[in-house]
Amino acid sequence: MEEPKKSPVFVAKIDLALGGKIESDLTERGFSITRPAYTVFSARKERLSVTLYQSGKLTVQGKDSQELIEFYLEPEILGTFAHTSKEAYVDTSPRIGVDESGKGDFFGPLVVAAVYGDESTIPKLLEIGCKDSKALKDANILQLAKKIRATVHHDVIRISPAKYNELYAKFGNLNTLLAWGHAQAISNLAQRTGCKRAIIDQFASEHVVKNALMKKQKDIDLTQRHKGEEDVVVAAASILAREGFLLGMMGLEKSYGMPFPKGASSKTIAAANDFARRFGKVRLTETAKTHFKTYFEIQDNH
To answer: Which DSSP string do the residues of 265-295 spell out, in sequence order?
Structure first.
């Protein structure tokens, strides 16, 4: 059964000083006004809604939105008709976005996160500033992740280094392991939301993830694309995945009383040698991904 097609969201940035006029004009047009968190106001009339956020972002969505935009907002508020371009609209169709963190890091877990977005939550993800986690500092990741978890249905799979090494030995291939993690997260969220559409950042041949989904008997319309994080739902998933990785690294540092550098650099090798001296190389299976070339550069002190 196909999901109903959702109308796109129109997004524009305006001067907050215009908020009072817009609210008054919409009230005269029969809109009812409420004031949800992070908004100046939200106006609704039948299936049409207009929301002005405290950041100055204005969103319009629902039936007859085009008429309101063309005959009121553009001439009276925006002063331009440029916003009728396709770029001003955001796809709010229901979908699951998936991304991972930690696959290129010698130390720490592999984390796969899935986020479900639809016409009620995608504007909120845009408002709180979701973008590719690689463009954000760690402190911002942790702050944004809290807001995302409070906004959307989500699923996070954190695979500890010990479990990762066990699964890698079973699958024998990183892409197959990643596909298993993506399929697991999609399956979990699809079961909870009923969503049959997913978007992921492409990391392997298309059939790899589809085969993993088929093993879970999930009929999912899967889209794999380069720079998948340009989709706001995938970007939100990338933030949750990165948060999971950062928390995993913090946990390791607390447990072993030493720093664990991110990535797989010379600093990583130095830290791994330090760990081997303290605890023995064999115990790196508890903290690191042992199929990395880095592992074979470490001195076996014990």
So the answer is: SHHHHHHHHHHHHHH-GGGGGGTB-TTSGGG
* CA separation for the pair 44, 49 (Å, rounded): 4
Rounded to 10°, the helix 161-171/174-193 angle is 110
Q: Cα separations (Å) of 16 from 21, 36, 89, 147, 207? A: 10, 16, 21, 23, 48
| pLDDT tens-digit map of 157-210 | 999 999 999 999 999 999 999 999 999 999 999 999 999 999 998 776 778 888
Q: Is 201 assigned to a binding site?
A: yes
Determine the CATH number of domain 9-90: 3.30.310.10
Say if residue 99 carries a ligand binding annotation: yes
Domains 9-90 and 95-251 in one fold: no
Instruction: Tell me: is residue 230 an annotated ligand-binding position.
Output: no
> Hey, what CATH class is 95-251 in?
alpha beta
Q: Which amino acid is at 229?
A: E
Identify the residue whose tokens are 């720490």. Answer: 108
Whether the model clears a pTM of 0.85, i.e. scores above it, the answer is no
Domain ranges of the chain: 9-90, 95-251
Spatial separation of the C-alpha atoms in residues 280 and 25, rounded to whole Å: 71
Distance, CA of 20 to chain centre: 34
